[in-house]
């Protein structure tokens, strides 16, 4: 899995890391390290997994260290997208002790948060591996960190839904309410969209699905439908559109949802509620 992951753009990484370091260092820097650690002290440290999971965010941890000192040597031992067990060493750093200590929390925050998302995604993906369905994320992400969190979803074996309001048309229930009907909303979207813009519409009833299919949307989101209704929707659609199940998706329900034959299962939980993967930095002062 890790071999197929594209690198995160350095510009994106730098912006996130610099903002986090500025927040942490404040106006005076790491006064604890300045007060207690000699300027010439060296440190060796390892990032270790304290419970099993999937790694994501190595590049941000590395960049946090390098931002504090270009003398830090960062050795990646386990790449993003890899599964780790309790006690596995993910990366090793060597360099000025003050720099390593000052970057520690920012590096761990990014690594733990993104690895937590990757781990949660992998748990869902494992439950549906025997089906055709893919797990996809939503826009329910931490403000300012969406691209990073969606990258973590890919590390965990999931796929990305749209990144923002500008890269696809997704007609939700409130859009339909204003337009007056599912069909009218799709017709307006079709007249507006460029030839590369996909159109998805949300429905929660079979009669809405049938109305939508007459207008040939690219994707239909089946909102809060149980397995029986989902199976009926798959039969009615008969391959004429990609079907995405959404709403009420948990680890306990996702397999049954996938077994209905839908193509995609979207869940916001993997980004907005995934627990942080417990990763520690064990350090020695030399």
Based on DSSP secondary structure assignment, what is the total number of beta strands? 12
CATH superfamily heading of the largest domain: Aldolase class I
Distance between the termini: 37 Å
Lateral arrangement of strands in the main beta sheet: 6-11-10-9-8-7
Tally of individual domains: 2
| CATH architectural grouping of the largest domain | Alpha-Beta Barrel
| CATH level 1 name of the largest domain | Alpha Beta
The number of helices is 11
Residues in helix, %:
40-55%
Coarse structural class: alpha/beta
Predict the CATH topology of the largest domain: TIM Barrel
Shape: elongated
Share in β-strands: 15-25%
Quote the average pLDDT: 96
**Largest beta-sheet characterization:** 6 strands, parallel
Task: State the low-pLDDT regions, or none.
Answer: none
Radius of gyration, CA atoms, in whole angstroms: 23 Å
N-to-C series of helices and strands: HHEEHEEEHEHEHHEHEHEHEHE
Keywords:
Aldehyde Oxidoreductase, domain 3; 12 strands; 2 domains; TIM Barrel; elongated; four-stranded antiparallel β-sheet; 42% helix
Describe the structure.
The chain is of the alpha/beta class. The protein has two domains: 2-119 and 274-285, Aldehyde Oxidoreductase, domain 3 (Alpha-Beta Complex); 126-272, Aldolase class I (TIM Barrel). It contains eleven helices and twelve strands. The chain has helices at residues 10-25, 31-36, 58-68, 97-127, 146-155, 173-179, 182-192, 206-213, 227-237, 254-258, 269-272; strands at 42-49, 53-54, 73-76, 83-84, 89-96, 134-136, 169-171, 199-203, 219-223, 242-246, 264-266, 279-285. It has a six-stranded parallel β-sheet. The chain is elongated. The model has no long low-confidence stretch (mean pLDDT 96).
């Amino acid at each position: 899995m890790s071999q197929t992951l594209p690198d995160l753009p350095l510009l994106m990484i730098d912006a996130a890391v610099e903002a986090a370091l500025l927040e942490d260092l404040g106006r005076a820097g790491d006064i604890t390290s300045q007060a207690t650690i000699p300027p010439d002290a060296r440190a060796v440290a390892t990032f270790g997994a304290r419970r099993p999971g999937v790694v994501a965010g190595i590049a941000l941890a590395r960049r946090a260290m390098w931002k504090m000192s270009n003398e830090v040597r960062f050795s990646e031992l386990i790449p993003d997208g890899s599964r780790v067990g309790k006690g596995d060493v993910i990366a090793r750093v060597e360099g000025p002790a003050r720099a390593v200590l000052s970057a520690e929390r920012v590096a761990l925050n990014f690594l733990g948060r993104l690895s937590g998302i990757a781990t949660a995604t992998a748990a869902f993906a494992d439950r549906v591996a025997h089906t055709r369905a893919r797990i996809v994320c939503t826009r329910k992400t931490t403000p300012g960190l969406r691209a990073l969190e969606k990258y973590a979803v890919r590390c965990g074996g999931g796929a990305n839904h749209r990144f923002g309001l500008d890269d696809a048309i997704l007609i939700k229930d409130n859009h339909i309410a204003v337009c007056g009907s599912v069909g009218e909303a799709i017709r307006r979207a079709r007249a507006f969209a460029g030839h590369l813009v996909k159109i998805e519409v949300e429905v929660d009833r079979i009669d809405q699905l049938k109305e939508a299919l007459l207008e040939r949307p690219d994707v239909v989101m089946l909102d809060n439908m149980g397995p029986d209704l989902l199976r009926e929707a798959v039969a009615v659609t008969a391959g004429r559109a990609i079907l995405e199940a959404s709403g009420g998706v948990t680890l306990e329900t996702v397999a049954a949802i996938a077994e209905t034959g839908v193509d995609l299962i979207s869940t916001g939980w993997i980004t907005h509620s995934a627990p942080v993967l417990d990763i520690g930095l064990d350090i020695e002062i030399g």
